Amino acid sequence: MIRSELLAALAKENPELRAEEVERVVDMFFEEIAQRLAQGGRVELRGFGAFSTREREARKGRNPRTGDTVDVPGKRVPYFKPGKEMRLRLNAE
């Protein structure tokens, strides 16, 4: 599902809201998650999963074009862990 499909589905489920209002709600939702993660926090959505960040250590990498060794700095990356209900739904037979 892409963002426009999500907006269309939410607008269909909530006909009392204008398309601009639905879009604003979705934007706020994702912005709040991004802000919390940027602050080093965690976002847990019960029944769905949890978003957090993990540290990646600095490492040596290779430039694929030249084969030269390059230093890749350490960084934080987003991480998603699905909740129990989500895992059960995905693996239902």
What would your notes on this structure say?
With 93 residues, this protein is an alpha+beta fold. The chain has two domains: 39 residues; 52 residues, IHF-like DNA-binding proteins (HU Protein, Chain A, Irregular). Helices cover 41% and strands 29% of the residues. The protein has three helices and five strands; from the N terminus they run H-H-E-E-E-E-E-H. It has a three-stranded antiparallel beta sheet with strand order 1-2-5. Strands 3-4 form a two-stranded antiparallel ribbon. A hairpin with a 6-residue loop joins strand 3 and strand 4. Helix 1 packs across helix 2. The radius of gyration is 19 Å and the shape is elongated.
What key phrases describe this protein's structure?
93 residues; 5 strands; two-stranded antiparallel ribbon; alpha+beta; HU Protein, Chain A; three-stranded antiparallel beta sheet; 29% strand; 41% helix
- Strand line-up across the major sheet: 1-2-5
Low-confidence stretches: none
Number of helices: 3
User: What value does the average pLDDT take?
Assistant: 95
Structural class: alpha+beta
The first-level CATH class of the largest domain is given as Few Secondary Structures
Q: Mind telling me the CATH superfamily name of the largest domain?
A: IHF-like DNA-binding proteins
CATH topology of the largest domain: HU Protein, Chain A
Question: Rg from C-alpha positions?
Answer: 19 Å
Percent of sequence in beta strands? 25-35%
As for the number of domains, it is: 2
Q: Kindly, what is the distance between the CA atoms of the first and last residues, rounded to a whole number of angstroms?
A: 22 Å
What sequence of helices (H) and strands (E) makes up the elements? HHEEEEEH
